[in-house]
Design a protein that fits this description.
Strand 2 and strand 3 form a beta hairpin. The strands form two sheets. This protein has a three-stranded antiparallel β-sheet with strand order 4-1-5, covered by helices on one side. By secondary structure, the protein is of the alpha+beta class. The protein has one domain.
Length: 71
């Protein structure tokens, strides 16, 4: 759950998305499209929680390119 803060009763309207902040200026969502839009609206809209970091994918032997033979 992502939590944001801005001006009270602020509305952010984009094609296919309508976000209404409450009377104290906070909004919470799980919607990935809304999170992406709100994260790009900083510094005007501030994220209150820390974004969840995606686990880094470790490179495995199968994903590495095979070594070229020496001539």
């Amino acid at each position: 759950m992502a939590k944001y803060k801005t001006l009270p009763n602020y509305e952010l309207i984009r094609p296919g998305i309508r976000i209404q902040f409450n009377s104290i200026g906070t909004y919470a969502t799980n919607n990935e499209k809304e999170i992406a839009l709100l994260d790009n609206a900083k510094p005007f809209i501030e994220r209150l929680d820390k974004p969840e970091s995606k686990p880094a994918q470790r490179e495995t032997k199968s994903s590495k390119k095979p070594a070229k033979p020496k001539k």
